[in-house]
Amino acid sequence: MSKSDVDAAIERWEEAGLISGELAGRLREEQTQSQRRGRRRFLQYAVSGTAGILLVIAAVTFLVWSWPDLGPGARTGVIAATGITIVLLGMRLEAARRYLPVTYALQTSGLVLLLAAYLHSIEAWDNMTAGGVIVGLLALATPVATIPVFVRRNPVMPAIGTALGYGFLAVFLFRAFDLDADIIIWILDGALVAALVALAVLLRAGHAESVSRRTLYAFTVSLYAGYPMAGMTTAGPLELGDEVFLALDAWLVLVTVLALWGIHRAPAVLRSARYSLHIAASVLIAIPLGFGTTLEVYDLPPLGAAAVLAGVGAAGLWYGLRLDARPLVLCSCATVVSAAWYLAVDAGDRLGTVLALAFTAALFFWVATRLGRGEETRRGRDQGDQEQQTG
Questions:
Q1: For residue 294, what pLDDT is reported?
Q2: C-beta separation of 157 from 104 below 8 A
Q3: What is the C-alpha separation between 314 and 115, in angstroms, rounded?
Q4: 98: how many CB neighbours lie within 10 A of its CB?
Q5: What's the first-to-final CA gap in the chain, in angstroms?
Q6: pTM for the complete prediction?
């Protein structure tokens, strides 16, 4: 909510007699101070981000200068040491409870660098050699050692560590056993399904009251990890070609249904309208998947592909307006715009472009009127309630 929205709300409450003039003044003062703190925080993020970029530039400059003189093992050590340093730096800053998004980004970047170091180590030690096995064991030990530490600190990094854990497991299987890529994919599929089942058991109604945000976040990122796993499985071991879109579509439907369950049917302690953000993400993901499925798998004409995608956007708009979920409404609008632009570009003439854009504009005007009508209805309902209480 912006400062103008807060000021307008305070003025409305004061005029309605809900708050006194003294309380209104205190609220305005607190809002002003909050805005100042927000501006200072933004400047801190900007300056610290600039410092981080300069640090990365300095590190890259050093590596470019010294990299040719280092052997494969030394290069692996440099990358790993850099990753560990960045993880520890992020954890140290997190302990101060400041710049938390930056600290999560630092820790994630450090883990990614460690994963890159384990992969680069093949230049120094072949698979199944002593060095390769040691690197594989270190890769397996990384999530085992870090996730319990993350669990005690915050709910975000355990989820990120879980997602990256599948990558560390793949490196372990590759370096220590030199397994074929298809076999590794099947093992990762099994690990993903096992993790989802175990987390789902924790989330069932009988245990919902004791579920922490860490478990919920880990379940969420494992669901999103299913997208690349479904794609790799169908394109790799199954060799299904364009049918990979169907597997991704099925996973998209699964994620969307679970989000709907979380909004309407989940146990009360887990139920939340914030899951509409995942539906908004599904609507955005449906843009490339929708075009891929309709054009590549089913070979629909451009009008049919645009109609399918516009239907997804319309459904998202309908549900987003009912739920008053702004991100979902915006993502649905973007989906409809994508369908309209695709149809206009495919038409290749000015009339097609004008018609597509005019239809989209009319749709958005209608959405705007619905949003305004919903706001007027809520205000009328609030005023009616106040009049009844006064009477």
A1: 94
A2: yes
A3: 41
A4: 12
A5: 32
A6: 0.73
Q: Which two tokens stand for residue 67?
A: 């990299």
Cα 195 to its chain centre, rounded Å, is 19
List of residues 6+ apart from 49 with CB closer than 8 A: 102
The C-alpha atoms of residue 8 and residue 5 are separated, in whole angstroms, by 5
- Cα dist from 181 to 81, 165, 173, 283, whole Å: 28, 17, 9, 31
Segment 3-8 long-range contacts (CB within 8 Å, at least 24 positions apart): 3/31, 3/35, 6/31, 7/31
What is the 3-class SS of 228-289, one letter each residue? HHHHHHHHCCCCCHHHHHHHHHHHHHHHHHHHHHHHHCCCCCCCCHHHHHHHHHHHHHHHHH
Sequence-distant (6+) residues with CB within 8 A of 54 are none
Tell which residue, 365, 341, 361, 364, has the closest CA to residue 353. 341
Q: State how far the Cα of 313 lies from the Cα of 47, in Å rounded to an integer.
A: 39
Alpha-carbon Rg of the chain, whole angstroms?
Answer: 26
Q: From CA 161, how far away is CA 309, in angstroms rounded? A: 34
Q: Which residue has the tokens 């009049």?
A: 387
For 249-274, the pLDDT digits (tens) are: 999 999 999 999 989 988 777 888 88
Name every residue whose Cβ is closer than 8 Å to that of residue 378 and which is 6 or more positions away in sequence. Answer: none
∠ CA 104-164-106, rounded to 5°: 20
Positive or negative, the CA dihedral 235, 238, 240, 243 is negative
pLDDT tens per residue across span 144-167: 999 999 988 888 898 889 999 999
Residues whose CB falls within 8 Å of the CB of residue 315, separated by 6 or more in sequence, listed in order: 332
Q: What is the tens place of the pLDDT at every residue in 304-339?
A: 998 999 999 999 989 998 888 888 988 898 898 888
